[in-house]
Amino acid sequence: MKKKVLIVDDEPNIVMTLEYAFRKQNFEVFIARDGSEAKIILEKALPQVVLLDVMMPKVDGYQTLKFIKNTSGLEHTKVVFISAKNKASDIEKGLNMGADKYITKPFSVKKVIGEVKQLLD
Amino acid sequence: MNSYVLFGIVALYLAILFFAAFWGENKAPKKWVSNPYIYSLSIAVYCSAWTYYGSIGNAATSGISFLPIYLGPMIVAPLWIIILRKIIRISKQHKISSIADFISLRYGNNRFLGALVTVICVIGTVPYISLQLKAVSETYAIFADNKIQTSTGIFNDTTFYIAVFLALFATFYGTQKTDASEKHRGIITSVALESILKLIFFLIAGIYITFFLFDGTEDIYQKISTYPNFSSLIKFDGIEMGINWYLTLLLSMFAIFLLPRQFQVMVVENSNEKHLAKAIWLFPLYLLLINLFVIFIAWGGIISFGSSEQAEYFTLLLPLKNQHQILALIVFLGGFSAVISMVVVSTLALSTMVSNNLIIPYGFLDKFVRRHSAKNTSSIKNIRRISIFLIIIAAYFFYLVYSIQLSLYSIGLISFIVIAQLAPSFFIGLFWNRGSSKAAITGIILGFLITFYCLILPFTIEALTGNSSFTDYGPWKIEFLKPYQLFGLKLFNSTSNAFFWSLTVNTFCYLIFSLTAKGNYRERNYAEMFVNNENYAKLQDNVLVWRGEAYVSNIKNVLIKFLGVTATEKALQHFFLQYEISPETEIADARLINYSEKLLTGSIGSASAKILIDNVVKEEKISLVEVLQILEESRDTFAKNKMLHQKSTELLDLTQQLKNANHELILKDKQKDEFLDTVAHELKTPITGIRAASEILKDDINEMPNELKTQFLSNIIKDADRLSRLINNILDFEKLSTGRLKLSLHRKNFSETIDFAMQSLAHIIAKKRINIQYNSSEEVKLFYDEDRILQVLTNLISNAIKFSPEKNGTIKIEYTRENPFLKVVVQDNGKGIPEEDIDFIFDKFYQSKNQNTIKPEGSGLGLAISKQIIEKHNGKIWADKTFKSGAKIVFLLPIY
Fold this sequence. Notes:
The complex is a heterodimer.
Chain A: E1 3-8, H1 12-24, E2 27-32, H2 35-45, E3 49-53, H3 61-70, E4 78-83, H4 88-96, E5 101-104, H5 109-120
Helix pairs in contact in A: 2-3
Chain B: H1 3-27, H2 30-33, H3 36-43, H4 49-62, H5 68-76, H6 83-94, H7 99-106, H8 111-145, H9 158-174, H10 185-213, H11 216-224, H12 230-234, H13 238-258, H14 260-268, H15 275-291, H16 294-305, H17 314-321, H18 325-370, H19 373-403, H20 408-420, H21 423-431, H22 437-465, H23 469-473, H24 494-516, H25 521-531, H26 533-537, E1 547-550, H27 552-563, H28 565-579, H29 590-604, H30 606-616, E2 617-620, H31 624-635, H32 637-699, H33 706-737, E3 746-749, H34 750-768, E4 771-775, E5 781-784, H35 786-803, E6 810-818, E7 821-828, H36 862-872, E8 876-879, E9 888-894
Parallel strand pairs in B: 4-6
Antiparallel strand pairs in B: 1-2, 3-5, 6-7, 7-9, 8-9
Helix pairs in contact in B: 1-10, 3-10, 3-15, 4-16, 5-13, 5-15, 7-8, 8-9, 8-18, 8-19, 8-20, 8-22, 9-18, 9-19, 10-16, 10-17, 10-18, 11-16, 13-14, 13-20, 13-24, 14-18, 16-17, 17-18, 18-19, 18-30, 19-27, 20-24, 22-24, 27-28, 27-29, 29-30, 32-33, 33-36, 34-35, 35-36
């Protein structure tokens, strides 16, 4: 069975590259453009891993992470923050909130895939 | 009269004076000896044997030229209220005990100047004392055997014994106390008594001669008017005599202030400056009375003896001729009184000066510091006693060498002229604070040298060689340098010539040197204290006009050396009590320094006191400006406190302002950080896109379908464009917000700029099929930066395009003249701006939370930049809140 990955970002170009890369790795890819879209998809698709941008309009990455932590059925869902915020304090905040990984933008696509695979093993 | 009887009478008379002095010193109620009458009578010490005998001689030979010596003081007496009071106040303030102290202190406590003034005073006074000796010895001789005897040897000479006798008397009374600035009530009492006696005795003699020997003044006048030289006795003998008369007048005006004995009785012995009010008319009255009969006695003598020979002693000779021994004795005792008071007061004043300004500072000071106080006190007294003796002995020798040949009158004038050399530095320095010590020293020395050359040298040469060629032809027969007609000026007699030239050069030097060379800080400080003493008097003790370091214990040690342990303890106790300072204080302040200097000044003079205190004090220089500042500040501490209070309030305000500024700075810093964070974030987004797309293309270049390749490549191009746009906007924004952007203003037609904006957006408008409603009804021309306004319009129109609905998008653009502005509106028919965002849309990087999920392209800086540009044009931009059917942005530009 294919692993499900949800990509949440409001930048279409970035989403497109990640979508292409994960498809190639045999993931089933879901896409949300912000936190509120993400919530709907999360409940329906129950992905194993979520790639989450932090700064998004309406519902941001942090709120989405809280939703994941508080929703039954998503207990095992791994969360990877992908953000341009690269200060140590930002990273610490993200990890403390329960994210499994924190990858800073700009990122290497290979590294993202590597980290996700490692999380799922 | 038998000389032994005479001696006995003189001894008895002296005993009475002695008793008066003793009584005045110890027994008399204070108000009996300290009152304006005693004060005025003590000033009459001015009338010495010179007046008593000399005036008559002068009146008999030169007529009215004896008068200016008394007219001068009479004329100047009303000015005492101003000048003398100032001098008295300064002297009390600084515990000044002599004129040498006064002058040296005025010029910054200059030790050399003090010594110089002392020397001048000694030189000026010694002939004067010798004049007294001459008068006593000659009258004694006349009285004893009716003729003046010439001495055959010192020890056979009665004058010598008289000198010793006077010295003993002066020594006993003058050196009772070490503190010379203390009052000598006993001496003053006896001087006052002597003044009464000499006046009464002289008047008795005058009345006797005028009304008993002759039939009153008219009788004398009638008899003398037949005398061949009569007219020269009652008239000015041409212009020369007039000039000489006025110069003598001036000379006596100076003398009344400057003679050491006058300074002593008028200033040092003054117990209350209010006494001046009576003295200014009592003393002139005294002078008037004592001169009342001078002319008649002189004329009476001429009539009786047929010539003016021995005219000086007419008062004595006339009664003797008429067998009135008792009256002659009274006259003799009157003259003797004049002599004694003059000699005692002069030697008292001079001995203080010699010890305090000459001997102690130039030799004994080191010794004193090492020795015990009791020994010091007796040493100081001994120095003074020896000084008195030496002065009188010097006077005796002067008498031997010169006085026998000279008249009383001319000896007196020499003294006056020498002393007058102090006048410029004394009087000008009192009212002019530029006067400097160098100037004073130079003036005095040059003035004295001229006096010496013009007056003393010719006398000396004549007295020693009996040859008058020096006076008659000048040195080496140079007429130009004839001492009595210096530089060929023939207007004066010998004394006026000396006086004129010495004082002119003296004053000139004093002024020139004072104007060209400034004194040091200390000098200027003292000058200020003297000249503006009124400001200073009230403040002095409270003012810390001194910065330095000294220990109380060191100062105490110095004081003990001179005052003794008990007196020092008492003085310090008094000081601490007066200023409410703890007696345990270790560091001395300015007040203690001043106080100690004053304590010592009385005993050893200001120059020495200063040297001693300086030894234990590390002094810092203070400029006059600072002193004045300190004075100014402490003038009213109240105002200062008020100012301080105000200042502290201001400071509190300032602190608050600083806090606020700091807070603002922190806030600004934070905002800057946030701005940079946002900028970084915004920049990273397209970079992330580019990097990710490029990576995929690189890795999958062979397997990827062409379609997808094209898609990724065009994404890269878009991101790159976005990146460069972003960078441009950030730079624009930064330039605008830091004010570095300069507008290039030109007068343009606004419709053209709108046309440009629409042209550049034409293809997007066409693509989205937007309906543009644009009416340019009127031409408006104004000054603006077209590029920048174009940027605003493009931004607003592209925003409108972005937010217009997909179908039937309509954008309305219009501009109208609303003086003094041009009003521009750009509106669309989209969803409008959410109410909660409308106040923030012009903030940088502000993005609505309710934006379309698809992120509109833009940097987040567009409106912020537009706002900056409009404001830079002194215009205004806002979103119309009342417009509900879309977004409506309005801006105004001033028309000019």
